[in-house]
């Protein structure tokens, strides 16, 4: 299992490169989208190496397509391994989703049916990816907008069994739990109770938007009050876990994101104090 790391970080976005290269940004780690840096050489990789000298880096992928029925793309894994070997990241993560079949790539995080057949395929792909990369991977629960009528288990049951079979670890996106629970009418606390707490290594926090009928995981706004409440509940169950703020659109000045991250720090500190009091 990966070592426990309980710092607080931000997603590194182009708008803030100068801040991270020229100032001392008070974060414990940064996370980048793996695919943006998987071409060897060039300015993006050089910037990432410089940031890596100052902060631990998490590589977060969006197109491994771990749920693909026809397996994983060997060229993708080769390029990812090169990046991993170069940057030596704190964690390497991706999503419990699929985006590719044959020569077609949807460039979207498509849902996996929670069936026994899909579980076998996902686990086989995770084993393959972990063997190639030579490390334990983290997988994130994606936001969901539809359900499959032949599901044999809940999302959290699927995730728990996936982790048990493969030894993979988990990236808990609290906003995605909230979005999916609202869209499908399940209890978000049942999700938190159902996943293996000891396998969660990182937490994502982000904003969402109200669509015509569903909540949409847009990453373009601050974390809402209800998601903060759910985060507080999550860390009461999980204990200290690396936590970061994701913002992918309508990106504000760095100071605003740091202010938002301070809320997570305060909640984490309060939980640590509570646990210390219980243990005394």
Your description of this structure?
- By secondary structure, the chain is of the alpha/beta class.
- Helix content is 42%, strand content 18%.
- The chain is built from 9 helices and 12 strands.
- The protein has helices at residues 17-22, 42-52, 74-87, 116-133, 155-166, 174-184, 188-194, 225-238, 254-279, and strands spanning 8-11, 29-33, 57-60, 91-95, 98-101, 104-110, 138-140, 169-173, 200-205, 209-210, 215-216, 242-245.
- The strands form 3 sheets. The protein has an 8-stranded parallel barrel with strand order 1-2-3-4-7-8-9-12.
- Strand 7, helix 5 (155-166) and strand 8 (169-173) form a beta-alpha-beta unit.
- Helix 4 crosses helix 5.
- It is globular and about 50 Å long.
- It starts with 7 loop residues before the first strand and ends with a helix.
List the helices and strands and how they pair.
Elements: E1 8-11, H1 17-22, E2 29-33, H2 42-52, E3 57-60, H3 74-87, E4 91-95, E5 98-101, E6 104-110, H4 116-133, E7 138-140, H5 155-166, E8 169-173, H6 174-184, H7 188-194, E9 200-205, E10 209-210, E11 215-216, H8 225-238, E12 242-245, H9 254-279
Parallel strand pairs: 1-2, 1-12, 2-3, 3-4, 4-7, 7-8, 8-9, 9-12
Antiparallel strand pairs: 5-6, 10-11
Helix pairs in contact: 4-5, 5-7, 7-8, 8-9
């Amino acid at each position: 299992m990966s070592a426990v790391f309980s710092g607080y970080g931000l997603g590194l976005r182009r708008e803030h490169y100068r801040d991270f290269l020229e100032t001392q940004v008070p974060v414990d780690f940064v996370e980048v989208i793996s695919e943006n840096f998987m071409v060897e050489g060039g300015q993006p990789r050089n910037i990432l190496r410089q940031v890596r000298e100052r902060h631990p880096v998490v590589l977060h992928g969006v197109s491994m397509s771990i749920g693909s029925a026809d397996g994983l793309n060997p060229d993708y894994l080769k390029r990812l391994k090169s990046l991993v070997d170069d940057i030596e990241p704190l964690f390497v993560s991706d999503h419990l989703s699929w985006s590719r079949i044959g020569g077609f790539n949807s460039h979207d995080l498509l849902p996996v049916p929670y069936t026994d057949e899909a579980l076998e395929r996902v686990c086989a792909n995770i084993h393959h990816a972990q063997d190639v990369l030579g490390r334990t991977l983290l997988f994130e629960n994606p936001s969901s907008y539809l359900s499959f009528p032949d599901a044999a288990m809940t999302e959290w049951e699927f995730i728990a069994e996936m982790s048990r079979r493969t030894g993979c670890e988990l990236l808990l996106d609290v906003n995605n739990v909230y979005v999916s629970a609202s869209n499908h009418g399940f209890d978000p606390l049942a999700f938190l109770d159902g996943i293996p707490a000891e396998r969660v290594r990182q937490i994502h926090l982000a904003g969402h938007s109200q669509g015509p009928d569903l909540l949409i995981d847009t990453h373009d706004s601050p974390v809402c009050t209800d998601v903060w409440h759910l985060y507080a509940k999550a860390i009461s169950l999980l204990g200290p876990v690396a936590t970061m703020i994701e913002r992918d659109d309508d990106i504000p000045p760095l100071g605003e994101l740091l202010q938002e991250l301070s809320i997570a720090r305060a909640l984490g500190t309060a939980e640590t104090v509570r646990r210390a009091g219980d243990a005394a």
